[in-house]
Amino acid sequence: MVGTIRYDFVIFDYDGTLADTKEDVWRSLEYACSFFNCRIPPAFRARPSNLALSEAELFAVLCPGVGAEHFAAFCAHLKHHYRVLNDFSRTNLYPGIRDLLGKLREKQTKCYIASLKPAVPLTKLLKQQGIANYFTKWLTPDYRPGATLTKSEMVGSIRKEHPAARGVMVGDSCSDVVAGRENGLVTNGVLYGDGDTERLRCARPDFIVKTAEELIPLLTG
Known about the structure:
- Helix 1 (about 20-35) crosses helix 4 (about 70-85) and helix 7 runs parallel beside helix 8 (about 175-180).
- Strand 6, helix 8 and strand 7 (about 185-190) form a beta-alpha-beta unit.
- Helices cover about 40% and strands about 15% of the residues.
- By secondary structure, it is an alpha/beta fold.
- The strands form two sheets. A six-stranded parallel beta sheet has the order 5-4-1-6-7-8, with helices on both faces. It has a two-stranded antiparallel ribbon with strand order 2-3.
């Protein structure tokens, strides 16, 4: 089926799908941990899928013995570094992504992002990388004032703009596949990102690729 499907729109996850962001996220976590004289264990850092843990789970693992009353401060330090201090010098687009976006534009395929990353750092990254103009819009948990959107709600919001069109969701995690399927999209899982590959496979996406370059013929038809 590769090269036979023509999509009207594509929704991408960002972290682990369009860009390798893990080192900059670890930097922000290191900053937050430093206030409590804690360090990230090497074995924990060696598993990028740990970055999918909630802030509460990260605090419990990375700051053992630190009282729960310090959790809010941990989150504040993490947020401040990631949104203000982090220069994202270690975040890079995966090989082939810029070429893919260019080819999708040539095909007049609309591109979107549905990401769990907050709007401020995501917008900063897209502009810094020079790819913001490839996307019609990007949705984040704080995209809608007064609400915290789930990945499925973000994808659903985009889907409503194209009720009769053929679309595909591309991501590196189980939640990306579930969100796409819940909204009637073709799903494409990528194995090169940060997500748990076993859980991704168990979610049974319609397609799976090992490299970003493999997305080019699959998405451009």
